[in-house]
Specification:
alpha+beta, 34% helix, 368 residues, Acyl_CoA_acyltransferase, Aminopeptidase, 16-stranded mixed β-sheet, GNAT superfamily N-acetyltransferase, 30% strand
Length: 368
């Protein structure tokens, strides 16, 4: 028996009969209020993704001595790598009971998940999962930064964990200057022919947007109508999301998905997802910044890895928090054994487009 075969003892795909034991394990591991225990979320996440795994839902459990001692979940998705689309999966919720850690359970679970796709990607993992993936040879892509646009300096400083640079910036610029910058960018976006339109749900027009925007990015999860409908319109918490189209005449030039969170008593806008045609990222964000400023939010945040966004966001006054708002958002990737040719593209963070809509990053609010 090989080492990996030995570690995979007791590892199998989840079956309906495992539900009681899995709930007990999740309650002990994640807490009684964990989203993993929500039945509607469970059904949406594992049974409704547009890129469903033909082998079954992507949830693996490890059983030892008659009980579940570990789990590994995945979210299957279509990943555009270069000019081709690959079967990929976001690795989420790797958890092993404390008494079974460092005994092969974690590697067995993650290997089972990785073998189900051409590429496996993990975002915002725990320290234990990071170490496990590192030992298994996953590619470390560093951190996904958070971009912060201060709208009301006094309110933002009161709730922010960043004192030094943010405090100096706010003291130097102040609210009038930030408001003036917002208005100037908004005027430029309007001069560009853009207007912000809020919609109740996504529609097939985003397929044309996806076709126009995708070639800009070497590695990006497909964001067509099927995905956006599942991710934002069908999710049990759909009412938490606000959907905006950036229009020029009758064409959709970009979209932005916004959520309003409460952070230590203040309203903060969170960009959950976005996509823009070439040249339309700055107008899109300019229109959204002015929208949330007028709605009296303290700040606007966007967690994204996108080399094309770094300079435009910086020019608009966004601060780049490389270690995130509360803790670093690590990213790791692994190509299947028979797809080693993917590793150079997957392993370079400069190739990636990532937002909070990817993996499970956007499931939690700032205050959670």
């Amino acid at each position: 028996m090989t080492v990996m075969a030995w570690t995979q003892r007791g590892v199998a795909r989840y079956e309906a009969c495992d539900r009681p034991a899995l709930e007990a394990f999740q309650r002990d591991s994640f807490g009684t209020d964990a989203i993993q225990l929500d039945e509607a979320h469970f059904h949406w996440l594992f049974e409704e993704p547009p890129e469903r795994d033909p082998e079954g839902m992507q949830l693996w459990v490890c059983k030892r001595n008659g009980g579940i001692v570990g789990q590994q979940a995945g979210i299957p998705f279509a990943l555009k790598v270069g000019d081709r689309v690959r079967r990929a999966s976001w690795a989420i919720d790797l958890m092993v009971a404390p008494e079974w850690r460092l005994r092969g359970v974690g590697p067995g679970l993650s290997e089972s998940h990785a073998a189900a796709s051409e590429a496996a990607i993990s975002l915002s993992m725990t320290d234990a999962a990071y170490k496990s993936y590192k030992r298994a040879g996953w590619l470390d892509l560093g951190n996904v930064p958070t971009y912060l646009r201060v709208l009301d300096p006094p309110r933002c400083l009161r709730v922010s964990p960043y004192d030094g640079g943010l405090a100096r910036m706010a003291a130097r610029l102040g609210k009038p200057a930030l408001t003036g910058a917002s208005l100037a960018c908004h005027a430029a976006a309007r001069a560009f022919g853009g207007r912000l339109v809020e919609v109740d749900h996504f529609d097939p027009r985003v397929d044309d947007l996806w076709a126009a925007a995708a070639p800009q990015h070497s590695c990006i999860a497909r964001r067509d109508w099927a995905f956006l409908n599942w991710r934002f319109d069908s999710i049990p918490t759909a009412q938490r999301h606000r959907r905006f189209y950036i229009m020029r005449r009758d064409a959709v030039m970009a979209y932005v998905v916004l959520r309003v969170d409460r952070w230590r008593g203040e309203s903060v806008g969170v960009v959950c997802d976005y996509l823009a045609r070439p040249g339309w990222l700055m107008p899109a964000f300019a229109l959204v910044v002015e929208k949330v400023r007028r709605e009296r939010m303290a700040a606007l945040l966007c967690r994204t890895l996108n080399p094309l966004a770094a300079r435009p966001l910086s020019m608009m006054g966004f601060l780049c928090l490389k270690n995130g708002l509360r803790q670093p958002t690590r990213m790791m990737a692994r190509a299947a054994a028979d797809r080693a040719d993917l590793a150079p593209l997957l392993g370079d963070p400069r190739n990636w487009f990532v937002t909070a809509a990817d993996s499970d990053m956007g499931f939690k609010e700032l205050g959670e």
